[in-house]
Design brief:
Length: 275
C-alpha cells in the first residue's frame, strides 16, 4: 500500500492524500451481495437528533459480509479485492467451488487468485478461518467471535490485529489492539492475519468536503458558541475553559467511566485496556 500525494493544484489537493491499496476490481460490486441502506442522519424513531453532526454524504449500498464464514470445508478463490464505502478495511470477493459467492474482510497479504478455506480442518494460513482451539499460540488473528457461531465482532477495522496469548481449558486469552486482554471461548472462530489497508490512519483528509462525503457535518467548539447555546460559550473574545468539558446539556464529556460495572462479560476481562 502506498500513500499518494497529488500536485498542489488547489488548497485541498495540497494537504490531502489518498491510499493506493491494491484493489483489483474497479467496476460495480457483486449485485447479489448488495443491500440498500436507510440513512437516518442521526435521528431516532421520533425524528429527533440523538447523534449530532450527521447527515448528507454520498449514497452507499451495503455489501453483505460473511462474518461467520459458514461454508466449512469448501475452498474459495479470491476473485477480486474491492473498496467498501461502509468500512475502513477492504473486502475480498470469494468464489466457492460449489458456485456460491460471498464477501470477507481482506487481510494484509491476501492476493487475487489465492485460495482460502474455513472450518476446524482448515490450515492456519492468511485468510483462513478456524476455531481458536486450532490456532497456534502467538498467532496474529482478526475477525474474532465473542460467542461461537455469532459472527466476527472483534478486530474488523483497517490495520487491526489480535494476538492469541494462551489457552486454558474452554477459554483462550487474546490481546486486543487497545491492550485489553480478555478470555474468549475456544470454539469461537478467528481469521488468520492482520486486517488490510494498514495505512488507513495515515491518510490526510485535506479539505472539509471529503468529510461531508462521509456523512460528517461540521463540528463547532462549545467555547465558540454563545452563552445560551453552550455552557462553555460566551465571554468577550477568547476565554479559558472555566469549567470541565461538557456537552450542551452540562453532562461531563471527558474522564468518566462509560462501561457498566455490572456487565456480565466483565468477568472475562483479564486486564483492562491501556490508559
Amino acid at each position: 500500500m502506498v500513500i499518494h500525494k497529488y500536485n498542489p493544484t488547489s488548497p485541498g489537493r495540497r494537504q490531502g492524500t489518498v491510499v493506493h491499496d491494491g484493489t483489483t476490481r474497479k467496476r460495480a460490486p457483486e449485485k447479489s451481495l448488495l443491500e440498500t441502506v436507510h440513512r437516518t442522519a442521526g435521528r431516532n424513531g421520533y425524528g429527533r437528533i440523538t447523534s449530532r453532526r450527521r447527515g448528507g454524504g454520498h449514497k452507499r449500498r451495503y455489501r453483505i459480509i460473511d462474518w461467520r464464514r459458514r461454508f466449512d470445508g469448501v475452498p474459495a478463490k479470491v476473485a477480486a479485492l474491492e473498496y467498501d464505502p461502509n468500512r475502513s478495511a477492504r473486502i475480498a470477493l470469494l468464489h466457492y467451488a460449489d458456485g456460491r459467492k460471498a464477501y470477507m474482510i481482506a487481510p494484509n497479504g491476501l492476493a487475487e487468485g489465492a485460495t482460502v478455506e474455513s472450518g476446524p480442518m482448515a490450515e492456519p494460513r492468511v485468510g483462513n478461518a478456524l476455531p481458536l482451539s486450532r490456532v497456534p499460540l502467538g498467532s496474529e488473528v482478526h475477525c474474532v467471535e465473542l460467542e461461537p457461531g455469532r459472527g466476527a465482532q472483534l478486530g474488523r477495522s483497517a490495520g487491526c490485529v489480535i494476538r492469541l496469548a494462551s489457552r486454558d481449558g474452554d477459554y483462550a486469552s487474546v490481546i486486543l489492539p487497545s491492550g485489553e486482554m480478555r478470555k474468549v471461548h475456544v470454539d469461537c472462530r478467528a481469521t488468520i492475519g492482520q486486517v488490510g489497508n494498514v495505512d488507513h490512519a495515515l491518510v490526510s483528509i485535506g479539505k472539509a468536503g471529503r468529510n461531508r462525503h462521509k456523512n460528517r457535518r461540521p463540528k463547532v467548539r462549545g467555547s465558540a458558541m454563545s452563552a445560551y447555546a453552550h455552557p462553555l460559550g460566551g465571554g468577550e473574545g477568547r476565554t479559558g475553559a472555566g469549567r470541565e468539558p461538557c456537552s450542551p446539556w452540562g453532562k461531563p464529556s471527558k474522564g468518566g467511566h462509560t462501561r457498566n460495572p455490572r456487565k456480565t462479560s466483565s468477568r472475562l476481562i483479564v486486564r483492562k485496556r491501556k490508559k
